[in-house]
């Protein structure tokens, strides 16, 4: 999500109702880079928020939708969002870590031989599916 101070590239310029505001004589143009001043309102039902932007020199105080912009990366550092497998105990599953496309895990046993309730098996299956998806994404 975007925040105040972010430099963003305008992809298109629409109002909160979705009407196109792009004009060759005024307003924000696709490709233009602007700075977000502050968020103007909360996430609406259509999945976007409105941001007030810096003055672009035309005397207007423009709002722009969060789904009409993209973050600009001008330097050698970028923010990367990725999923990581975190070692720990997740119900009856003990995860020691993951590397080279494999996970190192064991199960906590309350009894010998191991006995699991239906709920414990479902919880373990959910945890194992999450680990498998993360391994596939890596």
Strand order of the largest sheet: 4-3-2-1-5
Pattern of helices and strands:
EEEEEEEEH
CATH architecture of the largest domain: Roll
| Rg measurement, Å | 24 Å
Explained architecture:
With 138 residues, the chain is α+β, with helices and mostly antiparallel strands. It has one helix and eight strands, in the order ββββββββα. The protein has one helix at 118-137; strands spanning 7-10, 33-39, 50-53, 63-65, 69-71, 88-90, 93-99, 102-107. A five-stranded antiparallel sheet has the order 4-3-2-1-5, with no helix packed on it. β7 (93-99) and β8 form a beta hairpin. The two termini are 23 Å apart. The relative contact order is 0.15.
Could you give a short description of this structure?
The protein has about 140 residues and is an alpha+beta fold. It has one helix spanning about 120-135, and strands at about 5-10, 35-40, 50-55, 65, 70, 90, 95-100, 100-105. It has two domains: about 5-70, Roll (SH3 type barrels), CATH 2.30.30; about 90-135, no CATH class.
